[in-house]
Amino acid sequence: ELLSGSLEDVKLLLLSVVYMRGEWEDIFDEKDTREHNFHAKDNTKQVNMMYLNTGLSYVESSNLESQVLSLPYKDSPLSFLVFLPKASQTVDGLISSLSSDNIKEAVDSMTIRDVELRLPKFKIEKEIDLIPMLKELGAEEVFTTQADMSGFTNEDLYVNKALQKVILEVDEKGTTAAATTAIDAAFTSLRYPQKFTADHPFVYMIYDRVSAMPLFVGVMMDPTM
């Protein structure tokens, strides 16, 4: 589906393929999933909202003006991070503030809290033309007839397509992405759990706690789209 039309004349093609299937360390119970309002940019929609009440890594980031939550994957150094803007912040403002330092500071500041989490189920599917981004990074010549491919072929070749298809699905069992480090912290016992209701646009990422690097980043504007 990524490539339409005949490949008869194609001699060099650049594709990016990534696949990940991650199971939550704490699986959501499907019986607790309910319809819930999601306040998108222009209107309010009914979405399937998952529910979980358990101990999770959590912090309120003053730099990002957001609640930040980490959902660990089972037997993995990866986590699914959710950055939920507070009333004083917009999702655009949050995106502008998401430097590597601010992300790392938020993750390093997390403590285990009793959290009452509501998170929408969603699936995104998008095809991305990588050529504009690669050109911005300085890879210009490879996309022209002046491309020097002498390192691996004597033919006059250049790249005229560079495509990536992204699929990300989040449900009660975990995350499927095409394109849990143990935390030694004391459990903070609260009389009331910390509420985390992702009912408005938020930023999410698949984050590697070992390398302190985001592997996959997205913005959820509308779970029904």
Brief write-up:
This protein has 3 helices and 13 strands, in the order ββββββααββαβββββ. With 225 residues, the protein is mainly beta.
Return the string of H and E elements: EEEEEEHHEEHEEEEE
Count the E strands. Answer: 13
CATH architecture assignment name: Roll
User: Between the first and last Cα atoms, what is the distance in angstroms?
Assistant: 20 Å
Strand content: 35-45%
- Overall average residue pLDDT: 80
Whole-number count of domains? 1
CATH superfamily: Alpha-1-antitrypsin, domain 1
Unreliable runs: 180-191
| Amount of helix | under 10%
CATH third-level topology: Alpha-1-antitrypsin, domain 1
Largest sheet: 8 strands, mixed
Radius of gyration equals 21 Å
What is the count of DSSP helices, taking H or I runs of 4+ residues? 3
Explained architecture:
InterPro entries: Serpin_CS, Serpin_dom, Serpin_fam, Serpin_sf, Serpin_sf_1, Serpin_sf_2. Residues 1-223 form the Serpin domain. Pfam families: Serpin (PF00079). Belongs to the serpin family. This protein has 225 residues and is mainly beta. The protein has one domain: Alpha-1-antitrypsin, domain 1. The protein has three helices and 13 strands; from the N terminus they run E-E-E-E-E-E-H-H-E-E-H-E-E-E-E-E. The protein has helices at 91-97, 100-108, 131-136; strands at residues 14-16, 19-23, 34-39, 44-61, 66-72, 78-85, 111-120, 122-129, 162-170, 174-178, 194-197, 202-208, 213-220. The strands form two sheets. Strands 3, 4, 5, 6, 7, 11, 12 and 13 form an eight-stranded mixed beta sheet that branches. Strand 12 and strand 13 form a beta hairpin. The chain is elongated.
